[in-house]
Design goal:
It contains five helices and three strands; from the N terminus they run ααααβαββ. The protein is an alpha+beta fold. The protein folds into two domains: 30 residues; 89 residues. The chain has a three-stranded antiparallel β-sheet with strand order 1-2-3. The longest helix has 17 residues. The N and C termini lie far apart (68 Å).
């Protein structure tokens, strides 16, 4: 019995040590409430960092130069009056909740448009 427990422990340690750092990073980046795929199947962005980068200038104009933020929640459905039309055009629409580096919290509407753009 002791041999089975020891072998199981060794196997577990060797499997964990064989995982690449990016595998651990991917697992950590998947958090509840942060789905980047809208219910209509359209990808909102490739990552939350992409959302932050694309909104940086607008965000800094409101909260100050150098203030950064972290996405804390992504909500789909019923978040904007133009949502239905945007979805029909192949876009993803979401409400992004965030927390700034200064501790402020807020939200904004983010639209991922298809390559040909919305009409």
């Amino acid at each position: 019995m002791k041999k089975i427990v020891l072998l199981t422990a060794i196997a577990t340690v060797s499997m964990l040590s064989s995982c690449s750092p990016t595998a651990f990073q991917k697992v950590r980046s998947i958090q509840p409430g942060l789905s980047l795929i809208a219910p209509n199947g359209v990808r909102l962005a490739n990552s939350t960092q992409e959302i932050v980068a694309s909104t940086k200038s607008t965000f800094e104009s409101k909260y100050g130069f150098g203030v950064t933020y972290t996405v804390t929640k992504i909500t789909y459905g019923g978040v904007a009056p133009f949502e239905e039309r945007a979805i029909q055009a192949g876009a993803a629409v979401a409400k992004i909740d965030f927390k700034t580096s200064k501790g402020q919290v807020g939200d904004f509407i983010y639209v991922s448009t298809p390559k040909n753009g919305l009409n």
